Amino acid sequence: xxxxxxxxxxxxxxxxxxxxxxxxxxxxxxxxxxxxxxxxxxxxxxxxxxxxxxxxxxxxxxxxxxxxxxxxxxxxxxxxxxxxxxxxxxxxxxxxxxxxxxxxxxxxxxxxxxxxxxxxxxxxxxxxxxxxxxxxxxxxxxxxxxxxxxxxxxxxxxxxxxxxxxxxxxxxxxxxxxxxxxxxxxxxxxxxxxxxxxxxxxxxxxxxxxxxxxxxxxxxxxxxxxxxxxxxxxxxxxxxxxxxxxxxxxxxxxxxxxxxxxxxxxxxxxxxxxxxxxxxxxxxxxxxxxxxxxxxxxxxxxxxxxxxxxxxxxxxxxx
Length: 319
What we know:
alpha+beta; 26% strand; six-stranded antiparallel sheet; 15 strands; Jelly Rolls; disordered N terminus; seven-stranded antiparallel sheet
């Protein structure tokens, strides 16, 4: 099978206690997504928002191919080649970093529906009106908030990268470290579980955000604005078409950032999808924020720099 013909790099150590669980979990994810596709409509008639997620199946199949052939360490797969080991004096961005499969599984499992587990990974239907408070941190949540989800990290580890971040649901603080090692270069957060919003009566989403000096992503960065990607999803596909816009978030202040639904750009893996069907305001399933090296169609984020990233979400409302 072609998907399983993955070149095997030099391995620096082996840990049998963790390699079996990694392989089993990878196979379960693949089987779950394959079952989902086999029970959906014929592939030729499946639209972009249908339950079948063939991109996720391909991604997971590749992961299974690696996991079935490579040993793991206590932190996941260690993918060093002998050539990489010779670059011990290179910068972090230039060196090949270990790929943490366990962290990949931990992050991706929050956003992939497994029908054979019968998990209800979707909130009840909500007809959203302008002014509705859709999310607040747990520590400051008011009775007017409809928060029924939280955010969780979705970093470039899902693509083999080495960036990492965490999200504190109590305070709304998202923080981490971004690196472009392993050809990566982004950290992000995404809602979990999936929402089920009808935003027909709304124009967009408004984030109230707090940035600090630590938001600056390198020691040499000045107190300039930073561009974040704001993403809205109209399907629950793990790797489906996303609707995005890049907006400036000023540093060292509390600001409101509006994400208008009518100007969102359809994209898949940072490439625009010109012939995508229109965005469906009545089936909003997810929201996402990312600090990324990549804009669209090969363009780069001019404010990107490797290093620490921090952003606090104070409130998310509809307008």
